[in-house]
Design goal:
Layout: E1 2-7, H1 11-22, H2 24-30, E2 36-42, E3 56-57, H3 60-64, E4 69-74, H4 82-91, E5 95-98, H5 101-117, E6 122-123, H6 135-141, E7 147-153, H7 156-168, H8 172-181, H9 190-193, H10 196-210, E8 220-221, H11 229-237, E9 241-251, E10 254-264, E11 277-284, E12 288-295, H12 299-315, E13 339-347, H13 351-362, E14 366-368, E15 375-379, E16 383-384, H14 385-395, E17 398-404
Parallel strand pairs: 1-2, 1-4, 2-3, 4-5, 5-6, 8-10, 10-17
Antiparallel strand pairs: 7-9, 7-11, 9-10, 11-12, 13-15, 13-16, 13-17, 14-15
Helix pairs in contact: 1-12, 4-5, 5-10, 7-8
Bound molecules: L-homoserine.
L-homoserine binds near residues 186 and 197.
């Protein structure tokens, strides 16, 4: 029997308890005959009438000082007190499984180093892509390769919102509320909407893919708050869907990472990824293109990933599963060097005059018409971000601009 403690009985924590009890026999087989038993649940609240009530503790020291607890599952979210609790658990000889991307992005290398030193494990499959296995593939299955690009839809909430806005023409706030009610959104929805959640996730994936520390604070990040139904109309006009993409790719010796809404065309596999689904596209030098797809958020998909890590930790008591993520910081390529085509909307009361100005600055461009009065919209040729920004400033009157994924 392996005793575990679950820190946080929210959406994911309750899912973890549900899967461990509902799938007990199968899990026992997968661990080689060791039963996983939830000994404690740490939460501020009590849960009268719930079968876990007897296991609820409010004092973390009870868990920390119980030598029978071999694995701590941290599903509270946020950096503190999660970081302190996780570090204390590792220093007390307990392996840790977490779904907490904020914690992993901020302290991954340090926590991995402590777990290695103490022959323990710090596992975080559920921190990226909810139920999709992506950490283990990067860490174990694709190790013979050299990763050249990772592009993904890494936030279920914003994908749900953008998909519904595209399909049903629903308003941003109504759909966001639906996503929150379904338990997809972060406690602070701006983490989803402003791209911070996707930013932390691509930082984690990039760190694992390139073996050095990609600091999430260095990643250029834009969210979807500025995407309107008119932008979606223009995207449809050119046969695309707007998706919040998190990308990380090698450009020469450097890595360029960014998070931004982009227009994705039907020839890209990410085009058809809708609702709460996430997908991660990986391009390796030898393997070519690989795609991972599944539920990116939600109670049971995320809890399933957490429990798979618990099984892995139980199978590796006394052995560290090697993860290469050095604390040495990877200097990212300046985002000004990123090249894209842009769809640009400019306010105008004289279309011919605006067209002349646009052509003077950007060369011959393709005009896009979506039946919107008082605007001139066009698609640039491939242009670096820095140059685009300067030319847009000179043009003036830009209502919005959206990158087009190559
Ligand atoms: N808020 C996150 C999302 C949850 O919507 O993807 C999963 O990390």
């Amino acid at each position: 029997m392996i005793n575990i403690a679950v820190l946080g009985y929210g959406t994911v924590g309750s899912g973890v308890v549900e899967i461990i009890s509902g799938n007990r026999d199968n899990i026992k087989k997968r661990t080689g005959g060791k039963e996983i038993s939830v000994k404690y649940v740490l939460d501020k609240k009590d849960f009268p009438g719930n079968p876990i009530q007897d296991k609820v503790v409010h004092d973390y020291d009870v868990i920390l000082n119980d030598p029978e607890v071999k694995i701590v599952v941290e599903v509270m979210g946020g950096v503190e007190p999660a970081y302190t609790y996780v570090k204390q658990a590792l220093l007390k000889g307990k392996s840790v499984v977490t779904s907490n991307k904020e914690l992993v992005a901020a302290h991954g290398p340090e926590l991995l180093a402590i777990s290695k030193e103490n022959k323990l494990n710090f596992l975080f499959e559920a921190s990226v892509g909810g139920g999709i296995p992506i950490i283990r593939p990067l860490n174990q299955s694709l190790t013979a390769d050299e990763i050249e690009e990772i592009s993904g839809i890494l936030n279920g909430t914003t994908n749900y919102v953008l998909s519904k806005m595209t399909k049903e023409g629903s308003s941003f706030h109504t759909v966001l509320k639906e996503a929150q009610d379904l338990g997809y959104a972060e406690r602070d929805p701006s983490a989803d909407v402003d791209g911070h959640d996707a930013c932390r996730k691509i930082a984690i994936l990039s760190s694992l893919a390139f073996g050095m520390h990609v600091d999430f604070k260095d990643i250029y990040t834009e969210g979807i708050a500025n995407i309107s139904d008119i932008d979606i109309k223009y995207a449809k006009e050119i046969g695309g869907h707007i998706k919040l993409l998190a990308t990380s790719e090698k450009i020469g010796d450097q890595v360029l990472a960014m998070v931004a809404p982009m227009i994705v065309k039907p020839d890209n596999p990410l085009y058809s990824v809708n609702d709460v689904f996430n997908a991660i596209f990986v391009r390796g030098r030898y393997i070519g293109d690989v795609m991972f797809y599944g539920s990116g958020a939600g109670k049971l998909p995320t809890a399933s990933s957490v429990v798979s890590d618990v099984v892995d930790a139980a199978k590796h008591i006394g052995t560290n599963i090697m993860t290469i993520w050095s604390s040495k910081k990877l200097d990212l390529c300046d985002v000004k060097r990123a090249k894209h085509q842009f769809l640009v909307r400019v306010a105008t009361d004289d279309e011919e005059e605006t067209k002349k100005q646009v052509t003077g600055l950007f060369g011959v461009v393709r005009q896009v018409r979506a039946g919107i009065d008082g605007e001139f919209a066009f698609i640039t040729n491939d242009i670096e971000e820095g140059e685009f920004k300067e030319k847009s400033r000179q043009l003036g009157g830009v209502i919005n601009r959206i990158r087009i994924k190559a």
